[in-house]
Predict the 3D structure of the following.
Amino acid sequence: MAQAKADGVSLTGEGGLLAQLTKLVLEGALEGELTDHLGRENGQRTEDGRSGNYRNGHRSKTVTTEVGPVEIDVPRDRNGSFEPELVKKRQRRLTGVDEMVLSLSAKGLTHGEISAHLAEVYGAEVSKQTISTITDSVLERMTEWQNRPLDRVYPVVFIDCVNVKIRDGQVANRPVYMALAVTAEGTRDILGLWVGDGSEGAKYWQHVLTEIKNRGVADVLMVVCDGLKELPESVTRVWPLTVVQTCVVHLLRNSLRYAGRQDWEKLAKDLRPVYTAPTEAAAAERFGEFQEKWGTKYRAVVRLWENAWAEFVPFLSFDAEIRKIICTTNAIESVNARIRKAVRARGHFPTDQAALKCVYLAIMSLDPKGTGTKAWTRRWKPALNAFDIAFDGRLTLGTANN
């Protein structure tokens, strides 16, 4: 590098030091591949003294790399049977470039922005169509991931959806359904993605949960959802023993919709003793007090809690530390936030598949360093023992049968 600096050679860019080193490495590796293909070094004859197939010059080609465009000389053989693996015939990009494009796409950059970034930083001209082709390469991987076998039992599954804009004649919001599970080992596992055909509905959720069951999930101890009407019935049709927990945060938000803004703070303060009560009996007592105070003015709020009571109270049977992680859909909301960030820059998508591709890339890049997975396991591992006790050993039995 000191010599390159003294000679006025830049580190990056076309003709830079890294490009020259990349050229040397690629050409050296290709020469090695040809030597292996021919079975002898350059100028060495075969054992029977005949030359047979032999080297036949080079051909130049420019490949796009992570350090910019690099022109390399690819060796050829006389018979034309040499098929290099490092830089294949007709290949114009190294795999590192493809991974870079996928990473930038997962972070929400549009194809035009990715093309401009590669041109500005690396001096590489990559068209939007080429970038689309690169991202399409994940479709096979996505299909395999979407249909992979799942564990036999999960302690908790969080379900939710995000809306994306899809152009089907006209641009309209379409829900992308997602199920996020906590495994018996305390790790996070996103079970799949599905694009619905309209607004979020319990009927389509039953279709999603049935598909999850068909992929090997025989039992789920608890499903945490946002309180969608008729969703508990859809869950129990698939797994009859599953406990459905309504997200307390969504319940509070829905309560405030029926109240005047001037009363929001007072309502929230009076509902807090209900969802922080030590037992279900105590919660019912606190709710009775709330009903006496607000039942006349906000009957709709009282009716909302009465209708959701059976799905609201399950988390009250757990310790306070466990309650925090099962009483809301926060675990999946953080994933949804990343998805929204990725899709917001696109505006809308031409097809369902294009939308799924974008969402898939976003969730596959959630935790590149693995720190989130470690934190998730530390948070959930202590709670799983309590789950197994509370659910009569169904978790242990299901894991043993995997």
In short: The chain has a mean pLDDT of 81. Residues 116 and 377 are 39 Å apart (CA to CA). DSSP finds 17 helices and seven strands in the chain. The radius of gyration is 29 Å.
